[in-house]
Amino acid sequence: MKTFFLLLTAFSLSAGVASAQTQPAQRPGGRMAQTTPEQRAEMMTKRLTQQLSLTAEQTEKVRQLALQETQQLEAVRAKYAGANDRKGMGQELKALKAQNDTQLQQILTAEQFSKYGQLQADRQEQRKARMGNRRTAGDL
After folding, report:
1. Where is this region: Disordered (predicted)?
2. Residue spans of the chain under pLDDT 50
3. By CB atoms within 10 Å of each CB, which of 2, 19, 63, 121 scores lowest?
């Protein structure tokens, strides 16, 4: 009987180790990191089209701008990959965002751009709340 329990314990431990090794490795950044710039641009275009009621012409211009933006973001992230310069990367990303917002403002109406600004502020608050929850859970 002891042998049976010993074998059962050994098997269950080895099964746990084996199943842990079969889990696919996730890239940092979650599900968005697993998408291409084109896919991210398409998702952004769809979201803005729905939220801001864009015309067909606006939708096409936003799609082009979103693709350009995601490719630029990818280039900045690649430039700073492995580097320990978060401040430099943050400044470059902030400048890129300001540039893209200026271009977006030329595409949207004043009302749409105002709503866009509010949506961005709401998303920022959601990100802060998620980050706060992560830190709180990790402190336990």
Report:
1. 118-140
2. 23-27
3. 2
